[in-house]
Amino acid sequence: MPVAHQNTATRTPQMAWRQVGGPYFYAPVSRFPGDVFFVGSASTNAVDDIGHGRNPEAPFATLDYAVGRCTANAGDVIYLMPGHIELVTAAANLDLDVAGIHIIGVGNGTLQPIIRFTTINSADCDIDAANITVEKVNWQAGVADVIAAIDVNATDFTIRNCRFTEQTAALNCLIWIQLPAGVDVTGSRLTVEDCRVYAPDASNTHFINFSDSGDGHIVRRNVLMGDWSTCAIGGAGIVTNANISDNYIYNFSNTVDSCLLFADTATGVMMNNMVGNSAAASNQILATGMAKCYNYGVDIGVDAQGIPDPAMA
Which of 36, 84, 140, 268 has the highest count of CB atoms within 10 angstroms of its CB? Predict the structure, then answer.
């Protein structure tokens, strides 16, 4: 008997999904292969229980609860609805510890979902499982001198198209993203891309602190404006095969080497970065062991245009 063949011309990557307690929806299976959850503290119907979260009209109240409802490595997606505010009030109070989840904020401007660090300066978000992505969220300092807001303790963590802000004057994060010492293996392949950062408090030290070694980190296409006394991006860690490219950095601090500062033995590529502060342009980028090309530094108020680093022959 001949075998019936599928008509591949009519096949589509769009799949119809029906979740228990939720509506039918259509989505590309490659982007949403698992369960989909909704979180919205601004909704009067928001409750953290198993009867909620499957429908945007009856969402969970907190991201922390939604993470606990996910299944590891199943491609589950969590939507943070417009106006959602997640308060992080203590150390490890928000723990992203389910591998492979994808968190997506919905809403622009003042409606963009916020993850706000508040109450005590040790409040932080721990990244404790691999392959997690967070995008389109406003990470916000809501208390003074948060020590290190995002602790990256697992591999392949991605932050994409997010904002980093300070709720009001004198509320700030000393370090926004930290790869802590001692997690050089599990902290590899951090990706931070297409983000916007405004961090003007003079107590800040880093936007990203690579305090230990790690391989394959990517930091690209970000716009940073802030006051970082040590460096905007870098650290003492001996990172390898890093990609630091196409970033725009204005550091209000006049500390030398304070825009891009990496250990002499760090390796990778550093290309097409435009940076500036009130120090000599030749002292704004330090990455001796990296392949550098088309980076420019400018001494604000002095240089008419950027000075190339490395210098042109």
Answer: 84
